Amino acid sequence: MPHDHAHGHHHVDPDAGDRAVAAAVGVNVALTVAEIVGGLLSGSVALIADAVHNLSDAASLGIAWFARRIGRRPTDATMTFGYKRAELVAALINLTTLIVIGLYLIYEAVQRFFAPVEVIGWLMIWVSVFALIVDAVTAWLTYRLSKESVNIRAAFLHNVADALGSVAVIVTGLLIVSFGWSWADPLATLLIAGYILWMAVGEIRGVIRTLMLGTPPGIEPDEVLAAMETVEGVASVHHLHIWQISERVVSLEAHLVTDAETLPQIARVKGRLRDMLHTRFEITHVTLDAETPELACAHPARIGS
Question: What's the whole-model pTM score?
Answer without folding.
Answer: 0.69
